[in-house]
Design goal:
263 residues; mainly alpha; 8 helices; 87% helix
Length: 263
Amino acid sequence: MLAALLYPIQKSVQDALDRVGYLFTFLWESILFIGQGRVNWRHTLSQTAAIGFDSAPMAIIICVISGSVLALQTAAKFAQTGADSYVGGLVALAVVREIGPIFTCLAVGARSGTAIAAEIANMKVTEQVDALSVMHVSPVRYLFVPRLIACIISLPLLTVIGSTISILSGMIVAKSVTNLHSSKYLESIWLNLKPYDIRVSLTKSVIFAVILATVCCSIGLLTKGGAREVGQSTTKAAVWTAVTILVTDFFLTWIFFGTSFER
């Protein structure tokens, strides 16, 4: 009786571990193909344009709103205590360290990550992936590698653009709310934002790009069934990408900023 009750849980855990194993296997094979120079650069460039361009408006809008809200919440309170000269530094640190890389990657995951999972899942259920294998074309090399490289190229660029626009939008809001002069806002950024923070932001965006591409492509390649399963895979891609990125961000922040080492 107990075994019958525990069987569904055991099966779910086993399936989850199998999927994680496939995920790392696909990633390792992709690294090997990249190391060997076996990359379809034409396909990679088209994927880079699609992922970066299609996700840019959504990522920029989210970053602009986030920077504006952060400045709106802090500028008035800081002005009351005479600490308005710290508004720019606070906004810049929050945006560069966390808001920029996280929100940009979540926007790309919601827009392009789900599209990647849906496209590959549809190819899987219509046996197009099996046709590639029959023609001795590796599905990982043809489908996974271009999207992985495209994400690694696109996400850091979008993070830089989104973070910059977010900080500038915070400056406009701070000036509108408390009449904080732009020179004082920019000076605070100059004094508080360090090159280390920018390096960490770019490092996070690259790691998040690898996670996004790996999760979405793996879920697509492991899809079985028909149209219903394609929709389920798309939902799984959105959920697991967001959860994995947020959990990973916690540990990365702990590693980069939670220690006592000097930057």
